[in-house]
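Bug: token stream looks shifted between consecutive jobs. Job 1:
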Amino acid sequence: MTTTRQHKVSRLLQKELGDYFQKNGSKFTGGKMITVTVVRISPDLGVTKVYLSIFPGEGLEEALQAITDRAGLIRREMGKRLRNQLRHIPEFVFYLDDSLDYIDRIDNLLND
């Protein structure tokens, strides 16, 4: 169960990360579109799990690796953007969000 503080910080980070990836994400992923689908933050606000949806679907692991390699740069940029709202910027751990693939697979099974 998340606290109100966790929820507010995760929504703030989701908004800012989404804006960052919209403007800068295609530079280091080779033109792929990146969407921040879910942000979950630990109770101590120290670690954030960021789930990303990347389009088009080929080369997902390479794109995720490129984003993970730049996690420090992304954290620094979030620090600049949120310095007046957050005292401590959490560490980012990036994951691929496969919920759309899961929905598509369920839909195909139901149609068959």
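Job 2, same session, no restart:
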Amino acid sequence: MTTNIMIVGVGGQGSLLASKLLGAVLLSEGYDVKVSEVHGMSQRGGSVETYVRFGEKVYSPIITEGEADYILSFEKLEAARWAAYLKQGGEIIVNTQEIDPMPVIIGKAEYPTSILEELKTKGVKIEAIDALSAAEKAGSVKAVNVVLLARLAKRFAIPYGKWIEAIENTVAPKFVEMNKKAFELGYNL
């Protein structure tokens, strides 16, 4: 059986680091892991997605509509944009932060209201958290990715220490302690 995880957000939010950390932990647990490259506008502000697939044997890194067991969304509008990829019974873990896309910034559109409520009325299971506040407590708004990853970590029977080890081995040394704190805060929310 293969587990499919999409990590979606806006360029500059750290989806690549989240994918690397997730992949490192899963590899350390002996899974066959496929991590896609970042797709989309990885420059700050553009929509991006990465795929992480793991299991006994995984042949492709790509997730198609209706296949994702989990969507880790760094922003509410991105959760709605990618919800069709969620499988029946899957779950979206979403940061409640709102980042205005370009049409909103230039006044051509308004940020949609009630995004998460609309998804819930369609039967989508959602855990919405204020990852931005937790990241700020950890020392940087850039740690939203690790806070969200910690919420996802709770869905797997992988020891807490393995996640911390992945942070220590993957993150630049000067950011390790801040990311460990962000993981702890996210895990214990």
